[in-house]
Amino acid sequence: MGQYIGNFIICGLILLSVIVVYFTTQIVKSFTENSNDSLNQELSYNWIIRLSLNLLGYATVLLPGYLVYKYVCYSKYLQNTDSGCILKLVQHCFLGNTETGLLDSPNYTASISSSSVSRLQRTFSHDAIKLTYCFMGLQITYLTWGYLQEKIMTQKYKNNNGDIKNFNDSQFLVFINRILALTMSSIYLIINKKPKKHTTPLYKYIFCSLSNIMSAWCQYEALKFVNFPTQVLAKASKIIPVMIMGKIISRNTYEYYEYITAILISIGMFLFMFGSNDKYDNNNISTISGLILLIGYIVLDSFTSSWQNSLFNEYGTTSIQMMFGVNLFSCLLTSMSLFQQSGFAESFSFIAQFPTFTIDCLLISICSASGQLFIFYTISEFGAVTFVIIMTIRQGLAILLSCIIYQHHITVFGVIGINLVFGAIFLRIYCSNRLRAIRRRRAENVVL
């Protein structure tokens, strides 16, 4: 009897909170639509309204989950011995240690050990071919992704009737990228055998999923105020907020060279920001908006990687499990928000009017999802250091490609800033490897 009462309370909490948040979103949406939209566009602060509506849409999922979590904590609901779909779902969400299911992925302990043995047996030519494959895969997918990202957010689309229009819904692009990544990770988990038990409570993925979609949204929105090279260099500078998040979340400590390279990266970023001659919008509000969105993008992206790293360490979550869990909640959050704002109807209407946009959407989704798979494969085969070097080269090529295609103008100070940032990153990689080698030799000497 107690379980049925608990199920009724849980369903009631979910229904009530969804209704409250939904009607709140509609009220805010109708109010903003009746406001002076032309003034909002002119003053370049309408992104704040869109962000507020997005957060309200996410609250349609987050608020019911929070209320159910609180109810489960202060009741004896999970102590019920009876079975039921709602009880099992709540257990999977808040306790983890689920039975074998979709999220269970191949036993990576065995695969890693076998791969390390096979790695010793590989010849130089095999390593060269695999490294070339990883390098080209990462470069092609992410350079194409960056080109399409800038094209979609900054260029106008034209159809056969002569209509010209920009696409402005950043959240729809985030949803498109995540839905394909979710599909690919689902297929991978289904077709693989020898599953590794999934022990992570599902609600743990929500935190990095929310920060992931918000950082991606800030990334797309920032292109309306700053050029793509500035955004790429800002991402290369995220070492600084990653260090800060690492201290806050994981209580990490850092070496002196890490602080020095972080300072050099900050100086290089400062020189580049003031060495770019692109004229997006000369008013101060646009400049401040672009800066806020870039900061939000970097901070949220840094939190995402730090939180994912903590899940890897605490629960032994595999990369594919992480890919599935994060993209599952990302699709749920963004689809709910798009539905409430009529984003799906507007985006599909744009697709119907401008068919070339459909091709760009498909390509950017394929590049985003396949790029994640290349990341996992490269790290498993050659380690994180090789991956960082490849992606650093990709960032430099992305800036060069964007300047050539979209004709961005950068002064001498901007070029110096770019070289300083990437030079500091390579210096950081060199010092890290050097220090690791010294510690390894000391450990060997102690053993001897």
From TrEMBL:
Main localization, broad class: membrane
Gene Ontology CC terms, in alphabetical order: endoplasmic reticulum membrane; Golgi membrane
InterPro entries assigned to the protein according to its UniProt record, in alphabetical order: SCL35B1-4/HUT1
Transmembrane segments: 7-27, 47-69, 128-148, 172-191, 256-275, 287-307, 319-339, 351-377, 384-407, 413-431
Keywords: Membrane, Transmembrane, Transmembrane helix, Transport
Superkingdom to which the source organism belongs: Eukaryota
Subcellular location: Membrane
Molecular function GO terms recorded: 3'-phosphoadenosine 5'-phosphosulfate transmembrane transporter activity
Presence of the UniProt keyword Repressor in the record: no
Topological type in the membrane: Multi-pass membrane protein
Sequence similarity: Belongs to the nucleotide-sugar transporter family. SLC35B subfamily.
Family annotation (PANTHER family): ADENOSINE 3'-PHOSPHO 5'-PHOSPHOSULFATE TRANSPORTER 1, SOLUTE CARRIER FAMILY 35 MEMBER B
Protein's UniProt name: Adenosine 3'-phospho 5'-phosphosulfate transporter 1
Gene source species: Aphidius gifuensis
